[in-house]
Amino acid sequence: MRRRIPSISALLAFEAAAKLQNFARAAEELNLSQSAVSRQIQSLEDFVGQSLFHRSKQRVRLTTAGIGLMADLSPLLEEMELSLLKVKTHDSEDGSLNLGVYPTLGSRWLMPILMQPKADLARSSFNLITYLKNSEIDSSLIDLAIVQGNAPWPGFRADRLMPETLLVVGAPDILPGSVDDPTALLDCRILQHATRPRSWEIWFENLGVPLNRKIIGPVFSQFEMLIDAVKSGHGIAIIPRVLIHKELANGTLIPLNPFEASTESAYFLLTPDRKVGVARIERMRSWLLENAQD
Question: What is the DSSP letter of 236?
Fold first, then answer.
């Protein structure tokens, strides 16, 4: 059955002109003449039976019909481009990967894994794309993303990467030693992370001890800043163990209570559904899952 759609050239000309609000600049972007762009857009207007632009001497503006078409068309063209790219690179071992990760987890856990000499067998060239919140993840930009939270993850294949445990830590000289009474920790200056407001509540719940006061203290947007503040003796904090292996090993941070809370959430490795099966993505996925288990 023949589909009743206009030419791709007409759609691309319309999209460029709609974004730039100028036929001449659209022609430059598409490497066409201005008259060719005008003809393509006119053919599209004839096809839909609507004027898509208000034309003036210097600029053009989208009509109401043009605004509606642009809103629907751009995601479709992007989807088509991604589909064709997926087919083109499906069995290719070459090309770069965009890896999404939180900044501190990226520098402290992911990069050491990726820079191992034996990682050459699994590693493509890669770009790191960082975000502070899961809502900032753009599936059109990333090929794999590491997140902390709970399933489900709509639009992604989700592999459980590793669990998370939380420790109360401080600088070695902030307290005389380990504090057996967990409520006594609340007398210290408490430092917090912006995306983990329930850390103390979760830690006390796991311990089976009621949290009898509201947690108040300075809030940091990144774990790297929080860790540096705790190391400098500015307060105590609850921090995931995976982020402070080095500090615990060299003694610049110490557990202030022996209890470690295991959270219900975990770290997951996400692959956008549309990119599942791409050879180089699958190779990196397998490598990361293997190293997380180790």
Answer: B
DSSP assigned state of 252: S
| 58-82 residues labelled b (16+ CB within 10 A) or e (exposed) | eebebeeebeebbeebeeeeeeeee
Comparing CA positions, the residue from 62, 65, 1, 68 lying closest to residue 26 is 62
41, β-bridge pairs = none
CA dist list (Å): 75 to 5, 80, 287:
16, 9, 32
The residue behind tokens 């549309």 is 274
State the residue for tokens 């502070």.
132
CB 45 within 8 A of CB 51: yes
pTM score: 0.66
What's the rounded Cα separation, in Å, for the pair 230 and 251? 13
CATH code of domain 8-88? 1.10.10.10
Contact 244, 263 (CB under 8 A): no
- Return the closest-CA partner of residue 198 out of 148, 246, 131: 148
Q: Which fold has domain 96-294?
A: D-Maltodextrin-Binding Protein; domain 2 (3.40.190)
The candidate with the shortest Cα–Cα distance to 267, out of 134, 114, 167, 154, is 134
Q: Cα–Cα distance between 53 and 66 in angstroms, integer?
A: 6
- What does the alpha-carbon distance between residue 82 and residue 278 come to, in Å, rounded to a whole number? 12
pLDDT tens track for 8-57: 999 999 999 899 888 889 889 999 999 999 999 999 999 989 899 998 77
293 CB-near residues (< 8 Å, 6+ apart): 162
**DSSP string covering 34-94:** HHHHHHHHHHHHHHHTS--EEE-SS-EEE-HHHHHHHHHHHHHHHHHHHHHHHHHTTT-S-
How many CA atoms, within 13 angstroms, populate the side-chain half-sphere of residue 211? 16
User: Any idea where the domains of the chain sit in the sequence?
Assistant: 8-88, 96-294
